[in-house]
Amino acid sequence: MNNATNTQQSKLPDHYKGAAAALLSAFLFGFIPILAVSAYKKGITVMTFHFMRFIIASIALFCLLYFQKGHQVVMVGKKNFLQLFVLGGILFTLTSFSYFSSFQYIPASIAALIFYSYPALVAIGSLYVNKEPLTTKIILSITLSTVGLIFLSGKIDASVSMKGVLLAGFAALSYTSYILYGNSLMKKTPYQVVVAFVCFFSAVSFFIVGKATHNLILPHTTSTWLLFCIISLVSLSGFLAFFLGVKLTTPSIAAILSMAEPLVTVVLSLLIFKEYLTILQYLGGILVLAGSFLALKACALR
Question: What pTM, to 2 d.p., does this model score?
Answer without folding.
Answer: 0.82
